């Protein structure tokens, strides 16, 4: 386990799914946790799980697409806990019931505003707080395997995640010399609210499992394990990159389709 004893970690989108998984893992590893989201009951449950680890939890409502909200969140974190060592820009949404040709300006702006602009606001405010305190730090942004792929039905999601993958490279250059690293994590298919629609359809769930070389859909603990490594001291030389906890699905997505075509032809 990474040793995060005495550190303070902030996670946006921490009311559920991957965000909750990372908040709890950071607490297990010894960090106090700042929990930010727009879902207040969900945040309270995450706080309960953090406190169960005998760590302090600060719950703060924050819409990451608002710069004022994000700046207030970072100020609250540093004034409440006196330091900020790890910041994870995790909050995200995916558009549905649309596609490249029908997407409205509002649908595009919502996904980009939360998934890309929200990540920028979070990384920027956290980076400035870390620079001011002069102890280095860890900036982490949650991208996706969709940073590598396209999807006719989720063009803003894919564009936002590709943007996050690029954005961390710029922050890595801006703050690396100050002992602050900035990396992205690109999960594959993980069991959360976001993928519920896919998993509720047995044929789609089977297809996802078949196309994932390890043979199962991931769990938030799989994302949290990578986050714990990147957040820890052992990862001091990891900067400006993306790590994919994806069961190998991006290693050769065509191979599952090839196998299915061969089986169908037999
Ligand atoms: N589940 C997957 O398979 C998967 C794969 C790759 C990447 N991701 C990424 O993981 C991150 C977390 O998603 P998840 O799968 O845990 O889904 P989730 O829906 O369980 O969690 C998303 C969280 O973000 C919060 N949120 C939404 N809009 C917000 C806003 N404007 N401000 C603050 N919080 C907001 C939601 O309330 C929710 O708690 C996202 O960035 C998502 O794109 C998920």
Strand order, sheet with most strands: 3-2-1-4-5-6-7
* Shape field: globular
Measured between the Cα atoms of the first and last residue, the distance is 47 Å
Distinct ligand kinds: nicotinamide-adenine-dinucleotide
CATH superfamily: NAD(P)-binding Rossmann-like Domain
> Which residue ranges are poorly predicted, with pLDDT under 50 across at least 5 consecutive positions?
none
How many domains is the backbone divided into? 1
Written overview of the protein:
The structure is a single chain. By secondary structure, the chain is α/β, with parallel strands linked by helices. The protein has a single domain, classed as Rossmann fold. Helix content is 48%, strand content 13%. It is built from nine helices and seven strands; from the N terminus they run βαβαβαβαβαβαααβα. The protein has helices at 17-28, 40-52, 67-81, 105-133, 155-175, 196-199, 202-211, 220-231, 253-265, and strands at residues 8-12, 32-37, 57-61, 86-89, 137-142, 180-185, 242-243. The chain has a seven-stranded parallel sheet, sandwiched between helices. Helix 5 (155-175) links the parallel strand 5 (137-142) and strand 6. Helix 1 (17-28) runs parallel beside helix 2 and helix 4 (105-133) packs parallel to helix 5. The radius of gyration is 18 Å and the shape is globular. It starts with 7 loop residues before the first strand and ends with a helix. The model has no long low-confidence stretch (mean pLDDT 96). The structure holds nicotinamide-adenine-dinucleotide.
């Amino acid at each position: 386990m990474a040793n995060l004893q005495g550190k303070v970690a902030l996670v946006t989108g921490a009311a559920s799914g991957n965000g909750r998984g990372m908040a709890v893992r950071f607490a297990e590893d010894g960090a106090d946790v700042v929990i930010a989201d727009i879902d207040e009951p969900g945040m309270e449950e995450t706080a309960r799980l953090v406190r169960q680890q005998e760590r302090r939890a600060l719950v703060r409502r924050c819409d990451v697409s608002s710069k004022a909200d994000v700046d207030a969140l970072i100020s609250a974190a540093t004034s409440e806990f006196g330091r900020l060592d790890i910041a994870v820009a995790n909050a995200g949404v995916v558009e549905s019931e649309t596609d490249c040709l029908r997407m409205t300006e509002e649908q595009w702006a919502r996904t980009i505003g939360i998934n890309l602009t929200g990540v920028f606001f979070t990384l920027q405010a956290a980076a400035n707080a870390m620079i001011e305190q002069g102890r280095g730090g860890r900036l982490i942004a949650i991208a996706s395997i969709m940073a590598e792929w396209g999807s006719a039905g989720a063009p803003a999601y894919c564009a936002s995640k590709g943007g996050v993958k690029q954005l961390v490279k710029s922050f890595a250059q801006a703050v690396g010399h100050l002992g602050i690293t900035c990396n992205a994590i690109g999960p594959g298919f993980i069991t959360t609210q976001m993928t519920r629609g896919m998993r509720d359809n047995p044929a789609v769930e089977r297809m996802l499992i078949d196309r994932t070389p390890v043979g199962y859909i991931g769990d938030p603990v799989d994302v949290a394990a990578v986050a714990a490594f990147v957040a820890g001291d052992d990862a001091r030389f990891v900067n400006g990159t993306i790590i994919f906890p994806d069961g190998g699905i991006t290693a050769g997505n065509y191979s599952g389709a090839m196998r299915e075509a061969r089986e169908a032809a037999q």
